[in-house]
Amino acid sequence: MSDTATTPSSPDTLRARAAELDAAHASTDRRDAFLLPEGVIYLDGNSLGALSVAARDATANAVSRQWGEQLIRAWNESSWWSAPERVGDRIAELVGAPAGSVVVGDSTTVSLYKAVHSAARLRPGRSVVLTDPDSFPTDVHVTRGVCDQLGLTLELVSPGDAVARLDGSDDVALASYSQVDYRTGELWDLAAITSAAHDAGALACWDLCHSAGVVEVGLTAGGADFAVGCGYKYLSGGPGAPAFIFVAPEHIAAFTNPILGWNGHATPFAMSPEHVPADGITRARVGTPPVLGIAALEGALTAYDGLDVADVRRRSLSLTAFFVECLDGLGIDLPVVTPRDESRGSQVSLRHPDAYAVVQALIARGVIGDFREPDIVRLGFAPLYLSHADVLAAAVHLRDVVDGREFERAEFATRAAVT
Ligand SMILES: Cc1ncc(COP(=O)(O)O)c(C=O)c1O
Ligand SMILES: Nc1c(O)cccc1C(=O)C[C@H](N)C(=O)O
């Protein structure tokens, strides 16, 4: 969705507006809970969330006290064994799901494999799985892999066309989509697509990587059957943080984990060679959980204590709307690909023919965002630790990089391995 600049505003007007908005959203300001380097405006919390004091301390405690002193007793004394369900319950609150329907442990990719595989098998006799060709690639890869394994057909249908594809159909087993597009930031209608899937006798699975913690996901309200999401983006669980899987309570008894491991067993310490799935969401577990990663994630989630996700969402919408207001006000004439209405997640993506170099020039100024192929400057606004004043400062840097053609400097052209 492209827009051009409108009436410019003076920096003073924008500064006053930032102060007014920060005061209005003071109750959701958790900046003090996070440890960001001085001079950095961090607009990449949608890829790797910032470190919080609580995540750092929880990790140090898990390493030094639990592992270092309790040693193997920590499985019981520090409740390591039940951490996947305990932290799952905390995430469930953030994504509108009941206790006992979410568990953490594997990567997003593995969690998605478990969800898609199990969901597709719940609709025998149906041959098609729908997913978005523009999904984050791992989602397309996993879904294709499951289809190959189960003899199903993968049909690549944009979420915008999913309801029409499902309408009146009887061949679809599963519609599997991301709630927020990782590149454009578009927010898709989880309830509408899920309901269209159900009307067609199909199930719906959602990837919440770019919505958990910043959008009122509403899994139960929207009728979602399965969902997954990662722990390291807005939830700030740290690099490689464990992901989560949601299975709607009505499907748990029929959920067949495609990876039968001992942690999903009803009596793991009976050491039986027969696999008897555990009751409840525990059957979605596989092997030994990443205890240190779960400790960091559990610490990070305390940043949400006392907050209502609806208020976090309001702050997020205000930050992203204000960024677009700053683009307009400062005369930054780059096409905005993220919807200007509220059908967006917590990012603003812009197009620029030299997007990679623009992002590098911003990083050199301490404004950390990222580049996504082919020409996207992607700026994520993690609401808990960003202010409207940060947003204005970032926009001023962007204007200076673009207007001053700073991105043309040779040092910004070289691509790093990880972008
Ligand atoms: C929508 C989406 N799904 C999945 C992933 C990643 O999966 P994994 O955590 O397994 O690397 C990402 C980002 O890396 C993502 O944006
Ligand atoms: N998971 C990542 C990684 O291990 C290295 C670099 C980036 C990532 C990401 O999370 C990318 C992210 N999902 C995206 O939306 O582009």
TrEMBL record:
Pathway of action: Cofactor biosynthesis; NAD(+) biosynthesis; quinolinate from L-kynurenine: step 2/3; Amino-acid degradation; L-kynurenine degradation; L-alanine and anthranilate from L-kynurenine: step 1/1
Gene Ontology cellular-component annotations: cytoplasm
Superkingdom field: Bacteria
Known cofactor(s): pyridoxal 5'-phosphate
Full protein name: Kynureninase
EC numbers for this chain: 3.7.1.3
Biological processes per GO annotation: anthranilate metabolic process; L-kynurenine catabolic process; L-tryptophan catabolic process to kynurenine; NAD+ biosynthetic process
Organism, as annotated: Knoellia locipacati
Gene: kynU
PANTHER family reported for this sequence: KYNURENINASE
Oligomer status and interactors: Homodimer.
Known catalytic reactions: L-kynurenine + H2O = anthranilate + L-alanine + H(+); 3-hydroxy-L-kynurenine + H2O = 3-hydroxyanthranilate + L-alanine + H(+)
Pfam families listed in its UniProt record: KYNU_C
Keyword set, alphabetical order: Hydrolase, Pyridine nucleotide biosynthesis, Pyridoxal phosphate
Role this protein plays: Catalyzes the cleavage of L-kynurenine (L-Kyn) and L-3-hydroxykynurenine (L-3OHKyn) into anthranilic acid (AA) and 3-hydroxyanthranilic acid (3-OHAA), respectively.
Molecular function as annotated in GO: kynureninase activity; pyridoxal phosphate binding
